[in-house]
Amino acid sequence: MKKIILLVFFSSSLFSQISSKKIENWILKNNQLDGSVVSIALKRIDKEKKVVGLGTDIYMTPASNVKILTVLGSIYYGDSIPIINYKVYNDTLKISPTGYPLLLHPKYIDKDLENFLKKFKHIVYHAPKIDLEKYGPGWAWDDYNNYYQAERSEMPIYGNVIQAVKKLNGDIEITPDKFKTVIDFEQKKQIYRSEIENNFSVNPSLFKIGDTIYSPFITSRKNTISLLENALGKKVEFNKEELKDYSTLNSTQVDEIYSAILKESDNLISESIAANISFRLKDTISVDKGVKLIKSLSKQIELFDGSGLSRYNLVTPQSVILSLYDIYNLIGFERIKKIFPENYIIQNKKDFVWGKTGTLKNNHNYSGYIITDKNRIYIFSIMINHFTNDLSKIKEAIVDFLIYLKSNS
Questions:
Q1: DSSP symbols for 139-196
Q2: pLDDT tens across 309-360, in order?
Q3: Domain boundaries, the chain
Q4: Per residue in 38-88, pLDDT tens?
Q5: CB of 370 within 8 A of CB of 353?
Q6: Which residues of 62-127 form beta strands (DSSP E)?
Q7: Residues 75, 327: contact at Cβ < 8 Å?
Q8: Quick one: fold of 3-60+316-408?
Q9: Which of 41, 48, 346, 405 has a CA between 20 and 30 Å from the CA of residue 107?
């Protein structure tokens, strides 16, 4: 039997068309949702009424819906992302990291920091204030070899991963090529790293021409500085003293960073922005401190990371609704359309829904904004936890509900 946690719909004009009973009947008739915990919340954007109703204080596993909260935190705490702290002395550039994640990133092109560093003959890397663990609480220990669980660090470089590409001539090109890499035609993965050291093995027979595969490397300040030296072609000196009397270089691509978090669901970038929020307010690169600042913006949330990888995270649908409402009030709908992915998995329809998915095994959520046929904008949060059905069937059910909502509101 389904466990239904159904939030009340709170516009009188909506209630006359889609009652709580109708939504309950829709869920009960949907066999794809058998055995799952279902929560559906709505709020009309132009109504000031609070989110009220049945089950609004029930905690659900949000997965990557956490990224909505991280983006809200970044917008709320200045909406400006510091790239680097610096001080210029003659031909020497003194720098201190901020947690900024896009230096030499293999997937997201942002040349601001790279071009800035290349202008100077000498670079001195000053130790920042940090309070940072490489992995978050509740992360899977054996996922270290996967792109989505790249290690956190004070100054991510190359996305803290190596990139392996099979060229037209059959060669495997590795970037960066600093670490030990061997060819192993016997291993069962395309690329594999030792758990405790930066030794990689690659099986070219498992690559197709043009395949691009990523694998995280073990981070350290020493590795970061060495990789930076190789990329810039110049010596980078380390200074353990804190940088004083600095200026700050800010990102010119804030929305591109938010899009990488919301559209691509990039975990390291989201974790790095959480740490960057802490840096802005606490002068310390710390995901834990950043998460505390994010938590202070909402009630009914328990956060342990900035990306949603942790199964310890819990939110109520009400908290997601209110966070989306805050984003709308802070940046407006046109910018929301730019940074949120559109239309879920819905094909052959004009854009009408913008939202963020969140998926962990047996849990799938979709929260965002929808324009109905009557040109009304609603915030919604659809959270489906503990299902045993195929994920594709859960997605079909969500599509069915979105189209139902679009046509009846």
A1: --GGGTTSGGGPPP-SS-BGGGEEEEEE-TTSPEEEES--SEEEE-TT-SSSEEE-SS
A2: 999 999 999 899 999 999 999 999 999 999 999 999 998 889 999 999 999 9
A3: 3-60+316-408, 81-251
A4: 888 888 898 766 654 355 678 999 999 999 999 999 999 999 999 999 999
A5: yes
A6: 82-89, 92-97, 122-126
A7: yes
A8: Beta-Lactamase (3.30.450)
A9: 346
Rounded Cα distance, 209 and 328, in Å: 43
Q: Cα separation of 313 and 302, whole Å?
A: 5
CA distance 35 to 367: 21
Longest dimension (CA), the chain: 72
Residue 269 has φ and ψ, to the nearest 5°, of -65, -40
As a whole number of angstroms, the distance between CA 148 and CA 214 comes to 9
Which stretch of DSSP H or E encloses residue 91?
Answer: none
Class of residue 392 by CB neighbours under 10 A (exposed 0-12, middle 13-18, buried 19+):
exposed
Q: Secondary structure of the chain: what % helix, strand, coil (to 5)?
A: 35, 25, 40
Tokens 């307010």, residue located? 281
**pTM tops 0.85:** yes
User: Which whole-number Å values give the CA distances from 394 to 23, 35, 59, 68, 298, in the listed order?
Assistant: 16, 12, 20, 21, 28
Rounded to an integer, what distance in angstroms lies between the CA atom of residue 35 and that of residue 387? 6
What's the distance, CA 365 to chain centroid? 14
Distance CA 191, CA 147 (A): 11
